[in-house]
Amino acid sequence: MPFIKVAEGNSAPVELYYEDHGAGQPIVLIHGWPLNGASWEKQTAALLAAGHRVITYDRRGFGRSDQPADGYDYDTLASDLNEVLTALDLRDAVLVGFSMGSGEVTRYLGTYGSERIDKAVMIGVVPPFLLRTDDNPEGVDGSVFKGIEDAITADRFAFMSAFLADFYNVDVLGGERVSDQAIQASWNVAVGASAKGTLDCVQAWLTDFRADLPRIDVPTLIIHGDADRTLPIDATAIRLAKSIAGARLDVVPGGPHGLIWTHAAEVNSALLAFLR
């Protein structure tokens, strides 16, 4: 299996698992929490069929990548992405980040610039800034994130069941757009991730990306579901679209947070149109 070294660990390098398929303009898919690169399977198939080169990788701590005890902050995660782009010498690439992956896209462009990047796509977004503060009254109260951390610490396995129910809006879409088996598959991946990494990522969600946004100078597409319970659209995508010059917002009616699965046709249509 192919791996890319992104850092030194205590007694061995920290390596990320990746897959690289197809030819044409490279599209780098950055997955959401708590899943892995395989969660992009519906987008990968569509992108390959459209003639693109598709690269997925598992974030540190998740999937088949190494599970170090640290590095779950966005500065490090953006550095990991930079190592992937550099190792594969990708040029004219399109970054596509879902959920937590939207933070990697934002911090990467804010830190490393767009020399290697042609376009950016963010789906089910975290930026611009989730935490409610005096200068960010539209954010979410910090007690919400403390509750998530407490629930993960108490019983990570039970927490993931409840989380995925809202991730896919199972009470509305279960059996129609998402099967019990697909939910179980997501749970299996989620609980196989690093326990510490799973917990540490919650603090990463509170990152303030507002200083990164003016530095994004490539065409940007934002895709978000209007029924997203995990990252409600008013606190995230609506604000983000107003903060990136020229950004386009595509709202998916009825789309939950996990819309790359439940509304894959709608997501793929918007994504491929933007790439064209």
Automatic annotation (TrEMBL):
Gene3D superfamilies: alpha/beta hydrolase (3.40.50.1820). Residues 26-263 form the AB hydrolase-1 domain. It comes from the Bacteria. The keyword Oxidoreductase applies. Keywords: Oxidoreductase, Peroxidase. SUPFAM superfamilies: alpha/beta-Hydrolases (SSF53474). Pfam families: Abhydrolase_1 (PF00561). InterPro entries: AB_hydrolase, AB_hydrolase_1, AB_hydrolase_fold, Epox_hydrolase-like. The keyword Oxidoreductase applies. This is Arylesterase.
